[in-house]
Amino acid sequence: MWTRVFLTAVFLWAGWINTHYAMNSPEIYLEYGKLTPVPIYKEFISGFFSSHIQFFVISIATCQFLICLGLVLSKNWIKLACIAGALFGFAIAPLGVGSGFPAGVLMAISFIILYRKYEHDYIWKWQQYRLANKLRNRYQKGRNWEDIVS
Q1: pLDDT tens column, 30-82
Q2: H/E run at residue 12
Q3: CA pair distance 93, 105, nearest whole angstrom
Q4: Which of 12, 25, 55, 89 has the greatest number of beta carbons closer than 10 A?
């Protein structure tokens, strides 16, 4: 539960920060080119990206907002958000320390785990977490599954 809440907050914050800086000081994103150890990323940032910074960063921020929204919703939306979040985490990893490496990889792994273990409803329905904990505790005490669901 807290992983989902944390990732939702991180992507909301990141979307807002990226939108703000893309509109007010887009040149700061060129610094990532100096920090990345991957030559393809370095060439892309200093080349095509440098003349289209606002377009790329606002597109990234929009995706971050959509991932945040998907994490708030339920069922297929959260699964889609988890796939997008994992792809995002792996995509920013080659930026190196500029993206807080290895945080992107760890975030991607968190999204994969959330995707595989997910069975929850909308994020604001807190009773789902209490019920899940109650069931888990009863199951761990050695009770039969039939006793738990009845």
Answers
A1: 988 888 999 999 999 999 999 999 999 999 999 999 999 999 987 789 999 99
A2: helix 2-24
A3: 6
A4: 89
- Distance in angstroms (rounded) separating the CA atoms of residues 102 and 149: 41
Does residue 102 have a cis peptide bond before it, meaning omega lies within 30 degrees of 0? yes
Predicted TM-score (pTM) of this structure: 0.78
Closest CA to 93 of 105, 107, 82, 109: 105
42/33 Cα distance (integer angstroms): 5
Alpha carbon distance 137, 126 (integer Å): 17
Q: Would you list the domain boundaries of the chain?
A: 2-119, 125-150
SS3 29: helix
